[in-house]
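Slide 14.
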Amino acid sequence: MITLRYPLVFIRHGQTDWNREGRLQGGKDIPLNALGQTQATRNGRRLRGLAEDGALDLSTFSFVASPLGRCLQTMGRVRQALELPTDEGFAIDPRLTEITFGEWEGSTYTELHARDPGIVDAREADKFGFAPPGGESYAMLTQRITGWLEGLDEPTIAVSHGGVSRAVRGLLLDLDPDEVPYLDAPQDKLYLFEDGQGVWL
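Slide 15: predicted structure.
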């Protein structure tokens, strides 16, 4: 379990066509689709509403994003809704890159199962510990995210990915590792973790 001294707002990037099709994205740089752009703007407006209501003082927050384009697009739309510069004023941290699926990227689980049902079943039997060929496991991702979380020393707004969202919540909420890969990771909400509690907004 990791204890944060400062609030963290976590935003998953908006939807891509590969999300809609159920394709494993990982490190592939797939852009937001129209719905994803709308979701990103919605999350920025929600943040603005929290600031206007006095729930968050956004002037105290730093901004950081995964280097993948779908997160940079999302960050730009979030900051636009906050009336902040969209191409500067935030950091990029490669530790926030999505869990990689190696040779599986671009495929759906249906396609993978048709090619090699045994290896897909092996991942389902140990989704936290299994790494696809050339990819990462959730255990490996969690190690990467541990270093990032332990280094947070100010209120932070992070734009990253679904797998990263699960790893973050697993660490902050001290969840059983077997639960982590199955956590929901909505793209149309933001997650606020503050004072040891997490809530979707």
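Speaker note: The chain has a mean pLDDT of 97.
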